[in-house]
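Sequence only, no structure available. Ideas?
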Amino acid sequence: MSTTKVRPKQALEYHANKPAGKIEVNSTKSVSSQHDLALAYSPGVAEPCKEIAEKPEDVYKYTAKGNLVGVISNGTAVLGLGNIGPEASKPVMEGKGVLFKKFAGIDVFDIEINEEDPDKFIEIVKSLEPTFGGINLEDIKAPESFKIEQTLRREMNIPIMHDDQHGTAIISSAALLNALEVVDKKIGDLRIVVSGAGAAAIACTDLYVSLGAKKENILMADSKGILNESREGLDEIKSKYVTSEKVNNLEEALVGADMFLGLSIADVVTPEMLKSMASDPIVFALANPDPEIAYELATKTREDVLMATGRSDHPNQVNNVLGFPYIFRGALDVRSTAINEEMKLAAVKAIAELAKEQVPDIVLKAYGKSSMRFGKEYLIPKPMDPRLITTISPAVAKAAIDSGVSRIQITDWKKYEDELLERVGIDQRLISRFVYRARQNPKKVVFAEADHINILKAAQMTMDTGIGTPILMGKQEVIKSLIEEHELEAIKDCDIIDPKQHADRIEEFAKEYTSMRQRKGMTMHLARKAMSSRTYFGMMMVKNGEADVLISGLSNDYPKTVLPALQIVGMEEGVKKVAGMYIMNTPKGNYFFADTTVSMNPSAEELVEIIGLTHRAVRFFDYEPKIAGLSFSNFGSARGDVPSKMAKAVQLAKERWPDMIIDGELQANVALNKSLRDEMYPFSDLKGHNVNTLIFPDLQSGNIAYKTLMEIGGAEVIGPILMGMKKSVQVLQLGSSVREIYNMVAIAVVDAAVEKGDGL
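Reply:
I predicted one. Tokens follow.
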């Protein structure tokens, strides 16, 4: 559960924005010529068809089946919405597909089936086995979900998992193992009370039993009370947790209990009930959006309570995304015929053990923490931890191999881990990490062009996600009208400043500006004129500490925003020249391009400054820079001013920063192709490294390169990022989308929060 405020109109616009929905299908092979077409379809496609007909297992060799999961639902138990039908469930299933792809590199077809009869549903899903490498069942109501999953697991020869059951069970079990270690209790001695008797609650309890919990120590309640011997008409699933104890309700059950597991509704546990539990009570209140007892209330009631929820704004979030992408990844990679108990337990133990390891800086930065250590407030890893895939997936794969359900073996586990990191697209999480960091220390953000709807929508996102407080600049009547027209409720009470309505402030800022630049031709007349501009006025607010961040440039040429930034805010101490950088988010990962916006034709010495700023900025984004200085030459293979300038700059950079990983001059393809580069130039200081940072010899080449890659290569662009400023000022590209503006706000907020020596 995220704490981000999501507004209905915003959510609808997000899904309706063309192309509608959240997923698409892309070709993995070139189809750019008649020959390609002949290979892809007729007549070439006949060849893999014949091979598969002869040897069915070759379907994994010649098709996408091995990396394809079906997310299948009938929409009978969707989120907190209930039985809303298959069509209405489709946005959820598409969303599940997005998570599979983002976190584990797994492709998904979502299939919504208009069938509530479990037997018919089973037959439909069984018929899809030739298509998929695995099946993720989703949002199917109990008790039908139990029958459906059990039957499909028994009768199909690919991994099947109902995530609503087993995802929650696996993550909460990992949290439980670690909680027991913290409170020094044994699972076999644990008296457990469960609120909820649906699919998730049953699956969690089953897994706790597999880990050593005793059935006779478990009390389970549904909406009608405790499952005891006086209850009639209980189905087979609930019956296995019927107790002989004369207990009728949660209040009675919780007396002396060691653990409470909640998968029911909000506020069913009172402070008095919590007080009645045993010492060091373990409370997993997992109802969403509001837990069975609020975190703040629980921790206030008992200092010794050890708590987990489904929410991201409290410690120990039990989030299924910690499990299902990586479990399926491991299962698919060994062509497992099932997801069995051994594989689930392996996932549990892998997650639990990861929480005990030292947390890397990249995770600390993502969550705005100086430290995270195993203990009562850190029982399970965070969802943005990049180690999850290399921890859980290998553990699951090994368990599949050891339990005899794998069809292929993995022998080189280090190579497998490398393949996982390459496949998953860890780089896609960059902005997410910065949003998390920004939330920890939100800032006042001046939006200098608040009369533009994209700016206002980005301002609302800034407010809703808690990363900053917007200050809107422009004409009050125009901004208020746009806010009302587009139902931007979050920002309706934000400060709106029209400089032209603040003559006293203009005069005050003009005097200061004149004083700063009186020996550079500035007069009071010119200063007053400048300060009537929103950009100049906003820059003065940032300079004087009235705001922390300024965002501008959506409707102005880049130099028109950079100039007042340089004149008013100024460069960081020791910086001689600012520079601009773009982050290119590509299918192969993130790449950093500089200088792409500021220096027209920098000298070798100025390139050194750009290299230094870029190196620091790349580290700011939690990457280790591997830098190539570009030209049309490879180590002197061609003569000219550009190659010699870049070669000199690289040499000076090496002398200034001996530990920097950098070389050049190099052609772009050679720089980016490690195998080619290492073969042709084995002496290079870049040998063995994957280059992720490109320094261009002039603005022209950098600008052309990033715009070409953006339009033709389909790269998502983050930037331009202004490096070397004394305070946080970021300049947008003309016509930036709402998402692009918001990304820049998140970056600027984090930049404003750090020491400038570690910032941009």
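Residues 577 and 609 are 7 Å apart (CA to CA).
Hope that gets you unstuck.
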